[in-house]
Amino acid sequence: MTNYLPHCFDLFDKNGEGSIPAASLGPALRALGKAPSEEQVQEMLAGASSVNLEQFTAFAGQVEEPAKDDVMEAFATFDTNNNGYIALPELKHLMKSLGEGLSDAEIQGLVKVAAADDEDQVNIRHLVDQLMQD
Q1: Residue 15: count of CB within 10 angstroms of its CB
Q2: pLDDT in tens, 17-33
Q3: Is residue 46 left, alpha or beta, with left meaning phi > 0 and alpha meaning psi from -120 to 50?
């Protein structure tokens, strides 16, 4: 993952100034597959308005990636029929309303990755596999 850090940082350093704005720290860490809460991000920033590559690298090391089994278990909670599937509208609603919630753009990305079938059902294992790929 450390090979990706400078590339990821550069994607969020839109002005090429060697720093990313504080508002981009969470999305940048999530782009690496990390799952920091907004509270964790604010604690890392400690009021700073931007982050340099060295700080970004240190922050990336502080946030653990969720285990695949934990993600499967979390999604399985909403598998009401216990068949390994979740309805796409329900998935969208859950991802928008639980916790910090996803933005509309993030929901659209999730819909693409989810690859619902003709009946608007999402295979949970496939979804988690897609979300957790390196």
Answers
A1: 8
A2: 999 999 999 989 988 87
A3: left
